[in-house]
Amino acid sequence: MTHSHPAAGSNPPLRLACLDAEAPPLFSLWTPENGRQGYEPGVAEALGDELGRAIEWVRVPWVDMIPAVQRGDADAVLCGQGITAERQAQVDFTRPYAVFHEGILIRRGDDIASPEDLVGRKVAAIENSTNMALAQTFTGAEPVAFGAGSDDVYADMLAALRSGAVDAVIDDDVVFVPLGATHPDYELAFTVQTANKWGIAVSKTRPDTLAEIDGALGRLVSSGRLEQVWTAHLPTLDYPFRE
Prior knowledge:
By secondary structure, this protein is α/β, with parallel strands linked by helices. 32% of the residues lie in helices and 23% in strands. Strand 1, helix 1 (39-51) and strand 2 form a beta-alpha-beta unit. The longest helix has 17 residues, at 207-223. The two termini are 31 Å apart.
């Protein structure tokens, strides 16, 4: 008995929507040789093993991920989706596969260390995201929404920060803690302990698909496989699902 999918040939692939971007350790740009690497692709691979289904990535812009599952172009979204009331009105979510806080990235050496330092500053975040919701709580800051018409919103925000078009970018600590520690141009100003739960999004018309993926995710938590994936990709962050 190998560790491959014994029934993968007879089962249809699990089609997962995500944008194609470089956001390690969460995910990497897709390549023909290696596919996608990182924590979320690792979760997807474990789900595929659990379900005996191959994983097929449907690469779409951020703003088209939820519409893709609503149209049936993908079975689910596995791509940085915080479970918010606004999104729950559009899709159903599995139990969480991650819990992350939020980080505020600035140009290295800038004098920003707290929300108070953002007064009068332009703060970038993806539109309609948990990050944008946080940006809107910073009194006196000027939120700048990114995402519309973009294939790689993450790269667009970092380019705007580097050029001075914005003064800070909000995204999840999973991406910004390692980036701020190693990148010559950026540093992490501060984090906010928001404990956003991330889930896999499925069309409201497909409760069977939701139950199948959610059940498999539950088994990955119980067996310790999810913790192994987390530790392999996110060794500096505390695993959130220990009982």
